[in-house]
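Subject: Sanity check before I submit

Could someone independently write out the structure tokens for this chain? I want to compare against mine line by line before I put it in a report. The sequence has 270 residues.
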Amino acid sequence: MRNVLMEELSGIDLRSAESEIVAFIREVVRASGAEGVVLGLSGGVDSGVAAALCAKSLGGDRVLSLIMPTYFTPRSDLEDAEVLADGLGTKRRTIGIDAICDRIYESVGANHSNPAHRIPMANVRARARMVLLYYFANSENRLVVGTGDRSEILLGYFTKYGDGGADLLPIAHLYKTQVRMMAAHLGLPSRIAEKEASPQLYPGHRAIDELPLGYDGLDPILYGLFDRRLGPEEVAELSGTPLEIVKEVLRRHSASHHKRRLPLTVRPID
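---
Independent answer below. Compare away.
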């Protein structure tokens, strides 16, 4: 069945999008007076595209790629991150986060075998990475580049004050499908551009196990709902997706609204 919505979002002008993002990064860094940027490089497509665009904007010498593995991080991801950082000419550092997280787990009595602790422990890992990124941002006068894409942000599929903590989000307007297209456009290796989405916050962690569909199914739904502003029934029809899944996407967006806004206050703060 023809998926009209996927056809539309796949029609992005990649050259124009690249130029827009490169100019955005350059201007944000210039206006802030920062010396450069730092980002977490995982070996996945989002961080790979963000790193490549930062290097194009500022030059690799002004980009610090921070690789922050755990004991369960696949060796292939580490190798991909290292090769990409070096290929882009960025500075790179590797800092394992297990010791940091273990101290936190010990202090609160977290139990790896308790299913109720899995997500809180996973979020500690994401927030430990954020702490390290801001350490280098503060000590080296850099800005933290977030690597979240529009699909993840609309679904709330990120850790609040973890990978959601950043100074700029250069690919936040691109759906995962478009980020993969941008990766190919920028010449990133196909193994990175096409790599399965995985936050790697606990052993065996895969996005497809936590989301109602893969991104090739979710992106047309999100595009129809939030770019085209169509109703759930029309999105279901145009994307060929069961209506209950479209409604589940809307539910997740609504439930994660707090992640996309500043903390609530009694009165507005100007």
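---
OP: Matches mine. For the report I'm noting this point. The chain has one domain: 13-206.
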